[in-house]
Each structure stands twice: as structure tokens, then as C-alpha cells.
Amino acid sequence: MMIDYIARLNLLRNKFPELGIDGILVAQPENRRYLSGFDGSSGYVLVTADVAVLATDFRYVEQAEIQAENYKVTRIDGPVKEWFPGLLREFNLKRLGLEAGFVTIADHDGFQAAISEAGLIIDLVPVEDVVEALRMVKNETEIRSIEAAASLTDRALFHVMEHFIKPGMTESKVAWELEKYIREAGGELAFPTIVAGGPASARPHSQPSDRPLRDNEPIVIDMGAKLDGYCADLTRTFWLGLDQSDRFRPLYDIVLRAQQTAIEGIVAGMTGVEADKLARDVIVEAGYGEAFGHSLGHGIGLEVHELPRLSARAPGPLTEGMVFTIEPGIYIPGWGGIRIEDDAVLEYDKIRLLTAFPK
User: Fold this and answer.
1) Do residues 121 and 53 make contact, with C-beta atoms less than 8 angstroms apart?
2) Max CA distance (Å), the chain
3) What does DSSP say about strands 95-99 and 123-127: parallel, antiparallel, or unpaired?
4) Which of 75, 81, 105, 270 has a Cα-to-Cα distance from 357 of 20 to 30 A?
């Protein structure tokens, strides 16, 4: 299935009246790619009621002309004041939206100064999560891309579990072998890999160190491949050694039960708050509510963390075609942590997992 960029542009344009704008300047890289197909590291997408322009510098003009065939591609060079007014002048814009969550104060001030010096009268209007909201619902092509990234992630972890997760291997070495496998298979990392053994596993975003893995301790591995721009995100917790502690199995079973309750209970129309509560109630009732300090999940796609949110502060509804993680956890400082995370798509009013590594 080809991606219909014109349809995406029209969905964005339909938002203009409620936002009170007659055009939008998109600079956030994933938003730029979503709207145009252009994946260069620098450039702007300007969308008006009837025109779409991709402005980029000399390095990317040819690439943009190939990737963004529905766009007028224009070359920009030098300081903002030298090209920004010319980019806007022909469109008779009055209120231009800027991505409030991405554009810096310095960027805004530079745009405003360029407009003023050129004698243009254009209001710059901050807008939030406009393109991000469109990205929440994935089409079949996007879901297949995420599924392919998830499959590569599963295979990488199988490979490393078989050959490298053993006493004496350092966290950094395990992380490197995961990255090596993914890159040799044609992917890249969706985010820096987490390998955390023993007490470090109680820190949800612990970074790999030169500490060797040891017998009889928990190990949390949080990793993800990226393929064709789309991300996967998988976490598994292992116990290294045969002498399993009396603490590990009961805690692991609570987390697994919490995750399974969410997988079985999430349906279309449910809010992010309600989805989070499905898993959280299991952990709270087991007496570990304070040890589950993060949300149940987050959207995944062109970014590893994107909309929607599954949390106690996410009242928005979950709908068919959304892809997100389901990742409850329990963390005990000084001992270790347990997190189980899968990628899931909501379709036919139920959850289908895209990651398949055993639990």
C-alpha cells in the first residue's frame, strides 16, 4: 500500500479553522517525514490551504525532489531573514502556525524579526500536537513497518540471549551485541539500549555499564530496532542462574498478570486513563502501587515515544489503528526491577501483539 501524502495534507488543512490559522510551518523531523516522505535532517514543510512547499538547503534539494513528489521544493540558504520572508510572501498568509513543542524561543524570535524587517504582517501562532495527533492512527503500511521492526527486535534478543547473557558478560557488551545484530540486519537503534543487571534494574532508564552480569540476579533489557523509519520497543526481564530468589517469581507473576489483564481488557473507545488502570489495579492490589511509578504505555511509530499515552493523566480515547506499548513494572531500590513490555496494535476492537519474544 502506497502512502497517500495528499490525504495527510488535507487532514492537516481541515484543522486550520479550529486552530485559527491559514498555514503551518512544520520543522519537527518526524512530522516533516509523515507529511512529505522526506527524511533528510534539515528543512521545513510549509502547508497552506492549497500549496505544500518543502524548503531545504543545498545538501538535500535533489533528495527532496525525489522523496516529496507532491511538494514544491525550494532551496533556502543563509540566515532566516534572507529566505523566510520570501518563502511566505507569495501566499498572503495572515496567521501562521508554529510547532510550540519543537520550535525554540530563539527560532520564534528569528522568524518574527525576519517578518517584521521585511514589512510583512503575519501573526505567528503556537500550535501543539497537530501533526502528532494525525500520526496516532496508523495505516496498514505503517503497521507492517512497525511489525517488521518488532520482528527484528525479537530476533536480536533471541540471538543475544543464546550467546551473550551469562555471568561475566558486561552490560555494555550485551548492549553492543544487540546493536551489532540489528545493524547487520539492516536496521538501526530506535533508542539507546538498556541492559541493567542486579540493583541497576530498579532504575527504569539505567544505562549499560562495564559491570559484569552475575548469577542469581534480575536483568532488565529494554531495546528496539528501527526499520524504514518506524520503531519497535521491547522489554524483557530475566533471572540469571538456577537459584531463583523467593522474591523474583512472585513479583514477576504480578507484573505479568498486570500486563495480561491490560492486553485482554483494552478495547476501542477506552481512555488512556482506563487502560492504565487495568494494569495498575493489579499491582496496587498486590501491595506494590508505589513501585510502579511510570505510565502503562506510549504510542510508537516514527518516534519511539509518541501519542497516544496510556497513563493516569491521558483522558483521550484509544481508537482502531493505534499502536502503543503495554509495559507495567515493579522496581525495588537496592534489589532490582521487573518490566515486561510489548508493542500492540488495537484492531477489530482488541489487542494484537506485534512483539513475540517469550515471557
Assistant:
1) no
2) 75
3) parallel
4) 270
Q: What DSSP string runs through 86-122?
A: HHHHTTT-SEEEEETTTS-HHHHHHHHHHHHHTT---
Output the nine-digit C-alpha cell for 249: 517469581
Kindly report the CA angle at 227 between 221 and 233, in degrees rounded to 5? 25
What's the CA gap between 87 and 120, in Å, rounded?
A: 12
Q: How far apart are CA 212 and CA 173, in angstroms?
A: 9
* Mean pLDDT on 96-116: 97
State whether residue 226 is helix, strand or coil: strand
Task: State phi, psi for 207 to the nearest 5 degrees.
Answer: -100, 145
Neighbour-count burial for 101-113, b at 16+ CB within 10 Å, e otherwise: eebeeeeeebbbe
231-288 pLDDT, tens digit per residue, is 999 999 999 887 777 899 999 999 999 999 999 999 999 999 999 999 999 999 999 9
Cβ distance 62 to 35 under 8 Å? Answer: no
Q: How many CB atoms lie within 10 A of CB 17?
A: 9
Other C-beta atoms within 10 Å of 125: how many? 17
Cα separation of 326 and 340, whole Å? 8
Run of H or E residues at 264: helix 248-265
Cα–Cα–Cα angle for 340, 343, 346, rounded to 5 degrees: 125
Q: What is the mean pLDDT of the chain?
A: 96
Cα separation of 150 and 236, whole Å?
A: 13
Residue 98 CA to residue 261 CA, distance in Å, equals 40
pLDDT value at 1 more than 70: no
Q: What is the pTM of this model?
A: 0.95
Q: Which of 350, 235, 352, 202 is nearest to 304 (CA)?
A: 235
| 74 close to 54: Cβ distance less than 8 angstroms | yes
The residues facing 325 across adjacent strands are: 343
